[in-house]
Design a protein that fits this description.
275 residues; 6-stranded mixed β-sheet; 29% strand; globular
Length: 275
C-alpha cells in the first residue's frame, strides 16, 4: 500500500487555482489505484482567518446559502475531493473550512474513498491560539479514524502535533497510521520534523506529515513533508518546492514490531491524570 504526500504552494483564498494545482500534482505523481493521497491543511484557500469568505456548508450536499451577508458555496471543496478521489481511484484526504456556530468555522480534514464517498471528517482539536485561530475556529471534540484497506488511519491537523495525548487516544482506538495535514511555518520547521518522528516512535505507528510551501500574508512555509515508519525511520522527505513524495506502508512490519516490543500494552488507564 502506498501513501502520497502532495505539498503545495497554496494560492491565497483562490479555490479554483488550488484545485487545479492539486489535480496536477496527483496526475504527475502517477498514483496507483487504491493509494492514500494527502493534501495540506486548508489546501484550497491557505491558512485564512476570514471564515465568512471561505467557509462551506458542513452538510454533504445542501443548497447554497448566505452567512453574515455573504454567499458561500454549499460544499465546493468536498465536491472537489470526492470527484478527484473518483477520477484517480484513490483514497484522498484534504483540509477544508466549514460553518460552525456564530461567526466561527471548523478547520477540518475530510476523507473520501475511490468511489467518491466521504468516509471520515475530523475537526481540528487544537486551534493555533498564537496565530489567532482559536478566535475564528471552534475546537473539535473527538478523535476520528477510518479504514484504508486493512489499515486504521487517524487524521490530525497541524498544531495537534504538539499534543501527544491526542495521538495516544487514537492508538487506543486502533490507529496504525497518523496523517497530519499542516500549514507549519519555517520559523518552527525543526519542531515539525522532530515531533512527527516522536509521534511515530512513542506510538509504534507510521506517520505521514503533509505541509504546505510558499508564502501567505503572514507566514513563510518550507514544506518538508515527511513519511516515517513505526520505528521512527524517515522513509521519504520533501524539500521546499511543490511536489509529491511517497512510500510503502508496511503493515506487517508495524504489527510485528508492536508484537516484538509491546510497549502499547503497558499503557495505563487514566495515566494522563497521574501527577
Amino acid at each position: 500500500m502506498k501513501i502520497f504526500c502532495c505539498q503545495m504552494d497554496i494560492a491565497w483564498e483562490n479555490k479554483a487555482t488550488n484545485f487545479a494545482k492539486a489535480q496536477t500534482l496527483i496526475a504527475e505523481a502517477k498514483v496507483p489505484a487504491g493509494s492514500l493521497v494527502v493534501l495540506p491543511e486548508m489546501f484550497a484557500t491557505g491558512f485564512s482567518m476570514d471564515v465568512a469568505a471561505i467557509a462551506e456548508s458542513a452538510s454533504a450536499n445542501p443548497a447554497p446559502g448566505s452567512r453574515n451577508g455573504k454567499e458561500f458555496n454549499a460544499s465546493e471543496t468536498a465536491d472537489f475531493l470526492a470527484g478527484t478521489a473518483r477520477k484517480f481511484n484513490i483514497y484522498l484526504v484534504g483540509g477544508l473550512v466549514t460553518v460552525a456556530s456564530g461567526a466561527r468555522g471548523r478547520n477540518q480534514a475530510a476523507v473520501f474513498s475511490p468511489e467518491g464517498k466521504e468516509i471520515a471528517r475530523y475537526s481540528k482539536c487544537q486551534p493555533f491560539t498564537l496565530g489567532g485561530e482559536s478566535q475564528h475556529y471552534e475546537a473539535g471534540k473527538e478523535i476520528v479514524t477510518f479504514k484504508w484497506h486493512d489499515c486504521v488511519v487517524a487524521p490530525f491537523i497541524c498544531y495537534d502535533l504538539r499534543f501527544p495525548e491526542l495521538f495516544r487516544a487514537a492508538v487506543r482506538r486502533g490507529a496504525e497510521l497518523f496523517v497530519v495535514i499542516a500549514s507549519w511555518p519555517v520559523k518552527r520547521i525543526h519542531h515539525w520534523s522532530v515531533l512527527l518522528q516522536a509521534r511515530a516512535i512513542e506510538n509504534l505507528a507510521c506517520v505521514a506529515g503533509v505541509n504546505r510551501t510558499g508564502t501567505d500574508p503572514k507566514f513563510t512555509y518550507t514544506g518538508r513533508s515527511v513519511i516515517v515508519n513505526a520505528h521512527g525511520d524517515v522513509l521519504a522527505e520533501a524539500g521546499d518546492a511543490e511536489g509529491a513524495i511517497s512510500a510503502e506502508v508496511d503493515l506487517a512490519d508495524l504489527r510485528s514490531w508492536r508484537a516484538e516490543f509491546p510497549a502499547l500494552q503497558d499503557m495505563r488507564a487514566g495515566a494522563s491524570q497521574i501527577i
